[in-house]
Amino acid sequence: MIVVAVVAWLGWGLASDFSRGWELAATAGAPILTLLMLVVLQHTENREAAATRLKLNELLLALEEPDPDVVTVEERPDEDLHRLARQYRDQARSA
Questions:
Q1: Sequential DSSP letters for 43-83
Q2: CA 73, CA 16: separation in Å to the nearest integer?
Q3: Is the pTM of this model over 0.85?
């Protein structure tokens, strides 16, 4: 798809003797395509992260006594995240 677009753009440049409009299409089109790619990639990344969180929650709930604070950690404020991180770091050091 991209190769076809580049060939068409170069063909247009040859046909128009590399006019100002041809240059403008490249300078305006590249940032628009970059923004579009960014939106698509972020959507895919957010979807994968949500799926990973669901899988991890299932694993946590499979434990005999899951910590409810950890299962719902993504819904908590940053202060709670830092508190839980310190708590589990301390537990790991003492183990």
A1: HHHHHHHHHHHHHHHHHHHTSSS--HHHHTGGGS-HHHHHH
A2: 59
A3: no
- pLDDT confidence bin for 21, thresholds 50/70/90: confident
Query: In which region does residue 17 sit, left (phi positive, over 0), alpha (psi from -120 to 50) or beta (all else)?
Result: left
C-alpha 6/C-alpha 4 separation (Å) is 6
Rounded CA gap, 22 and 8, in Å? 11
Q: Among residues 32, 8, 31, 12, which one has the least CA distance to residue 21?
A: 12
Q: What is the pLDDT of residues 85-95, one digit of tens each?
A: 899 899 889 87
Pick the closest to residue 73 from 64, 62, 85 (CA basis).
85
Pairwise CA distance, residues 57 & 49, whole Å: 12
CA angle 87, 91, 94 (to 5 degrees): 140
The pLDDT value recorded for residue 47 is 92
